[in-house]
Specification:
The structure holds 2 protein chains of 2 kinds. Chain A contains 2 helices and 5 strands, in the order αβββαββ. Chain A is an alpha+beta fold. In chain A, strands 1-2-3-4-5 form a 5-stranded mixed β-sheet, with helices on both faces. In chain A, β1 and β2 form a beta hairpin. Chain A starts with a helix and ends with a strand. Helices cover 37% and strands 17% of the residues of chain B. In chain B, the strands form 6 sheets. Chain B has a 5-stranded parallel β-sheet with strand order 11-14-17-10-18. Chain B has a 4-stranded mixed β-sheet with strand order 1-2-4-3. In chain B, strands 5-8-9 form a 3-stranded parallel β-sheet, covered by helices on one side. In chain B, α2 packs across α3, α8 runs parallel beside α18 and α20 packs parallel to α22. Classes of the chains: A alpha+beta, B alpha/beta.
Chain lengths: 119, 509
């Protein structure tokens, strides 16, 4: 398992709990991919993709969630919804973008709510 | 939640009702649109959501499905943006569905929530029932205000419309404003007083304008054929309300009326280059747009250098010339556009152009000339009532300081002749002498005995065809109308015979 990614996900879970999110599931895996965190905020089910980088020199972490990745996440989310929730449950996709450096620790955390959604 | 908003689209020159249905539900967020939208239409989702957010309405993720009913007709353009935005707000519970009763909404949105003008407002406004309110972009107001007895509200921004629907602000319906558009300065500058000499050609053009006869000018290059034709609009009578409304509708669909005021009163004059395509001339394309012949409806279609046009384009003019309309049928459907125009053409007599020149030598061979003239088929030539030669001026005419007759004087005579025709053909559905059918010809084109003798002589001596016989009578009818005479006299007949240059083949040998 990717170590940096794992650290980032732990940071994200802590951040979400602090902001009143209820974590439903971590690392929901299907053959076609995985959703890092599924959480609930109020009535909304949030599918959260966590991206961690050591530096934003090349690109911000969230920039790597491209159209292909978004499509993939949508598909997995639909599967999860069909198994666990009524089909019209309100939901959204978030991205948590983390900059983490081993020497100085957490540098930046950026939570983008409703980041994409087939629009 | 489900919301329904009524809107309008255009098909041909008619508007029809489109119901925009919006369903906002939970589930994975997304925007999907059904009901055969084209690319511009499908993109409206992105515009609408940005516009809603930038108008400071709360908008959270949800699954949005939009249906444009009737679902079997293709929808074009961004004109449903405003209706979709209002539908989404209503489905989200930010607006009462009751407040949308009897409202018809059309308009394009910009990302900041401003409402942009759209094409084809006039046919849409006409199709809105009198007991409904038509909400449309403020940029289109001049055009929509033409429609009599309609209840129209002009909107600048999405926010403004929402406040209006909530009843927070009052917006007064626009007043009907049937002001005829003034001619632009450039158009005013073209006047027949600038054209020296060429009395014969000027007279022919005057008659063509008075009877809406198709006209062809033949002559060497640089002798004023184009100059004469460009001054045709300055002597044409103005359109009446019904004609103007129809022409404005066509211009509205083609998007030529934006930011201009009101009705087009002056007859359209379309000067066309010979590189034009089939779809450009006759109409068509993927969205079945009207072509140049429809833009010239009730006006003049001027084809300079007639033999240079591709043959299929010229032949394509034959049916519309006869029927006054064109039916365009493509995969996307079929649309009928009106195309009642007067054809004006200009051409050289041969490839080098100097065949009819009194001094200059023509260096074309006989087959070359034949080939050049053959580009215009017999049936098309048959539909051209007046064919005249434009001759070079003499030096004394060129330097003549006296101004020629101004357009305003000629225009008065044309209007007078048109008035006579209108009265005469009141119950027949014919608008001008050019449209006389054989059925009415004997009734309205009665000749004096002297004229009958002359026409008989002309037919036998010049060996004119049957079709030429009819054309001469039609043109003579107009000449007689210019003189305000009931019967066609010998002078009128002899003048009309003069306008059959090609039939007489005086210069073709």
């Amino acid at each position: 398992m990717n170590k940096l990614g794992h650290i980032g996900e732990n940071i994200a879970v802590g951040y979400l709990r602090k902001h009143g999110y209820k974590i439903i599931r971590r690392n929901y895996k299907l053959r076609c991919g995985e959703i890092d965190i599924i959480a609930k905020e109020g009535e909304y089910i949030c599918f959260i993709e966590v991206k961690t980088r050591t530096s934003a020199f090349f690109a911000e972490p969230y920039e790597s969630v491209d159209y292909r990745k978004q499509k993939k996440l949508c598909r997995i989310a639909e599967t999860w919804l069909s198994r666990h929730e009524p089909p019209d449950a309100p939901c959204r996709f978030d991205i948590i973008s983390i900059l983490f450096n081993r020497s100085i620790g957490l540098k930046e955390i950026n939570h983008i709510k409703d980041a994409f959604g087939g629009l | 939640m489900l919301a329904k908003v009524e809107s309008r689209a255009t098909y041909g020159i008619k508007g029809y009702r489109v119901d925009v249905e919006i369903d906002v539900t939970g589930g994975t967020p997304g925007f999907s649109m059904v009901g055969l939208p084209d690319a511009a239409c499908r993109e409206s989702g992105k515009r609408v959501i940005s516009a809603i957010r930038n108008s400071h309405f709360s908008f959270n993720a949800s699954k949005i499905t939009v249906n444009l009913a009737p679902a079997n007709i293709k929808k074009e353009g961004a004109c449903f943006d405003l209706a979709i935005a209002i539908g989404i707000l209503s489905a989200k519970g930010l607006l009462d569905q009751e407040s949308l009763e009897n409202m018809v909404i059309c308009g394009e949105l910009s990302l900041d929530g401003m409402v942009r003008p759209i094409n084809g407002i006039l046919p849409r406004a006409i199709s809105v029932e009198k007991d409904k309110t038509f909400i449309m972009p403020a940029g289109n107001i001049n055009e929509a205000a033409i429609v009599k007895g309609s209840n129209i509200i002009a909107i600048h921004t999405l926010n403004q419309l929402v406040s209006f629907l909530k009843g927070e602000i009052e917006l007064a319906p626009c007043k009907t404003n049937i002001k005829l558009r003034e001619n632009s300065d450039a158009e005013k500058q073209l006047d027949f007083s600038d054209v020296k000499g060429n009395q014969h050609a000027k007279r022919a053009i005057e008659i063509a304008a008075a009877g809406s006869h198709n006209i062809l000018m033949i002559g060497p290059p640089g002798e004023g054929k184009t100059m004469l034709a460009k001054r045709l609009p300055s002597i044409m009578d103005n359109m009446d309300y019904d004609e103007a409304l129809e022409s404005t509708k066509l211009h509205s669909i083609a998007g030529l009326t934006k930011n201009k005021d009101c009705l087009i009163a002056q007859r359209p004059f379309r000067c066309i280059h010979h590189s034009i395509s089939d779809a450009g001339m006759l109409g068509g394309g993927t969205s079945l747009q009207p072509g140049e012949i429809s833009m010239a409806h009730n006006g003049i279609l001027f084809l300079d250098e007639l033999p240079e046009f591709r043959r299929n384009i010229l032949e394509g003019l034959r049916q519309p010339l006869e029927a006054g309309k064109i039916l365009i049928t493509r995969v996307a459907g079929s649309v009928e556009y009106p195309a009642k125009f007067m054809l004006a053409g200009a051409m050289n007599p041969c490839p080098c152009g100097y065949l009819t020149h009194p001094v200059k030598e023509c260096n074309c061979t006989a087959p070359q000339i034949q080939r050049y003239l053959n580009k215009i088929s017999g049936p098309l030539m048959d539909r051209i009532d007046i064919q005249i030669e434009v001759a070079p001026l003499k030096y004394s005419q060129l330097t003549d300081k006296n101004k020629s007759e101004p357009s305003s004087v000629i225009k008065k005579r044309v209007i007078q002749a048109k008035k006579i025709q209108k009265q005469k053909y009141k119950s027949t559905g014919i608008a001008s002498n050019a449209q006389l059918t054989p059925k009415y010809m004997d009734k309205f084109c009665q000749l004096t005995d002297e004229a009958t003798t002359l026409l008989k002589l002309a037919i036998t001596e010049l060996s004119l065809s049957t079709r030429a016989y009819d054309k001469i009578r039609k043109v003579a009818r107009t000449v007689a109308d210019m003189d305000a005479k009931e019967l066609i006299e010998a002078v009128h007949i002899s003048e009309a015979i003069n306008y059959r240059s090609l039939d007489r083949k005086l210069w073709l040998e």
